[in-house]
Amino acid sequence: MTASVLRLAAAACLAAAFASSATAAPEDRNARVEELLSQMTIEEKAGQLNFVSIVPVLEPAYEDVTRRIAEGSVGGLFNVYGAEQTRTLQEIAVTKTRLKIPMILAMDVIHGYRTVFPTPLAQAASWDMAAIENAERVATVESTAAGVNMIFTPMLDVSRDPRWGRVVEGAGESPWLAARIGEARVRGIQGADLKKPDNAASCVKHFGANGAVEGGRDYSALDLSPRALKATYLPPFEAASRAGVRCFMGAFNATDGRPTITNRHLLTDVLRGEWGFTGVVTSDFQAIKELPDHGTAADLADSAQQALVAGADLDMESRAYVKEIPELVRAGKLDVAVVDEAVRRVLRLKDDLGLFEDPYRGATPDREKREIFTDAQKAAAQDMAEKSFVLLKNDGVLPFAPDVKRVALIGPLGDSAADTLGPWAARGEPNETETLKQGLERRLGEGGEVLATHGGAVEDSTDEEIAAAVETARRSQAVVLAVGERFNQSGESAARSELGLPGHQEKLVRAVLAAGKPTVVVVFAGRPLALSSLAERAPAILYAWQPGTMGGPALARLLMGDVEPKGRLPMTFPRSVGQIPIHHEALPTGRPAETPIKPFTTGYGDSTYGALYPFGYGLTYTSFAFGPPKLDRERLAKGESAVVSVAVRNHGRRDGEAVVQLYLRPKVAEVSQPMRTLRGFARVALKAGETKTVELTVAEKDFGYWKSETDFGATPGPIEVMTGPDAANVQTTTLTYAP
Predict the structure, then answer these.
(1) pLDDT in tens, 484-523
(2) CA gap 642, 208 in Å, rounded
(3) Closest CA to 171 of 127, 134, 115
(4) Total-model pTM
(5) Which among 314, 309, 490, 523 has a CA at the least distance from the CA of 411?
(6) Eight-state DSSP code of residue 165
(7) C-alpha span between 597 and 606 (Å, rounded)
(8) Which distant-in-sequence residues (6+ apart) come within 8 Å of 279 by Cβ?
(9) Judging by beta carbons within 10 Å of its beta carbon (0-12, 13-18, 19+), is residue 209 exposed, middle or buried?
(10) What sequence ranges are listed for the domain Fibronectin type III-like (predicted)?
């Protein structure tokens, strides 16, 4: 027998032994946790709180970690994947250690494991909760088949500065929309029963206000009031907590001068006290070790004590807990009861995952082959991609006519697999990714031809390369310009101070447009870019984001009109960097902007105040007329709800899908409220010429607001009820709240 077969046989026996000693009764499971806790030394307790990264290809580090696992000083690993690899490592924990406690095995699976879906911000553009939940279901099935039992996602940082590279990982600028997306993603990962081997624990990140960055820079923070935190940045996390998420990851930054990982008010008073969260809190990568750099801790021991007392259970890769906790306890500087409570939460999560019954959760090489990168999973990825694309402009170019057979594909991103996948692509393989070029070639078939030329690189182009691109355009019937960002120009540590097209791509676009061919600019990017010049010149602009494994065929189908554009923007697109931050929840001012520009009003002397493309914006291949909102009542008493009706007519020649968006604003409030806040939406499919009425509900909680950090409620009086296709194009009626 081979070594791997012997390991699998031994693992089967071990799993049976665990199963025979484990019952499903909650009281028995709690008793098991308490029994284990009572047997632990302080070193073993600290070991359970030690969350370590492992990279198998780095042999010295790998050998060090496996030795520490055997010693009982590692409670969880991350950056680990593959059924055989995870079984080998888990086997060390459950056979070599004194108490044989299995490990948490975690991984960043941000938008798919092997079958890579569009990036999270792109998924948010779908405004489709069922599709988003299904994307997480696929990612989790694949991840768990590879032995992963915890996934570091979703990221629910409200993001209003597109200079910040990590906007690509989030759900955009709306706390309400991010909350709905967070709920869907947690459901998709954890399912109804965490013990089922194809479910995993979701670790939502980055709790606090990691998106409240200064100047778009990673790891920085604005100084926010407690009320601003409650109103804007915490709602998505509270929604995830209500949805049953089992892990929170603290933010790196310090929104009140205190790094989140040592902010007891947030980690304990709010998260555990107000919200009733009973799961595990982990630090981010080396966040505890970095506390002296913030100037809030003296050394590693001080850092460990502060973080644990604040409510951080797991220390990710700082190795501060495993090193410092035993001595802190012995010196009387740390109460062992604080340590016990953190260990108890970690053990309960392991129990709830079913690790004591089966440490491997059924992950085998055979299951891994069977459940990863299937045709059904690839079809789901393509469907998600088709729903995420946002049509920003169309002067009749799209969809291409059926007789278009010779298409020029110009630009550095038309046949770039890695850039199609996007950042944080987990185990996605570029050689398994279908690019736009491949998608067009397949869609056009034998009678078609794709004339492809790069026109230079993302970062640079020569005059000769641009001239060759123009010549290619002249020989075509229609042109697709594939421009934007490379995959590594968005993501963590990828802040940008300028948001135009990188390199000489703007020059390439202008030269090709001058050829006069029907042209669509397809933009690949992880964030909103400032596209004012492009918007003036290009006849059609399609925002493709970074669409993942099946991005190419999805784009080809949309360009040729096989499917309709359905995406709507989850973030406002600025005209220039100078407008940032710009978002739909802007607060009013006593001197609002006016058009034409007047002195002594808010705005700019050299540009308009409005966005290039507003939040919620997105065109289709047809056109819709939205009627005004109509209420079923004029006054709303406490505990009641009102129904808002909106008639929508498709007055184009194609079938399509409208998205009716609902925004609210108390006209008079104790604290100044945003001009409009998203509080609902509804999709409606309409055949050409068809009219339907959409109904949306308004309740007190929808127009309530945080008057202070501790006081949430609604103010009696008029409530503006706004509906329309996006945040900038609404019609308004008034509902009176009279409790």
Answers:
(1) 999 999 999 999 999 999 999 999 999 999 999 999 999 9
(2) 33
(3) 127
(4) 0.95
(5) 523
(6) G
(7) 9
(8) 201, 245, 246, 247, 248, 345, 349
(9) buried
(10) 658-727
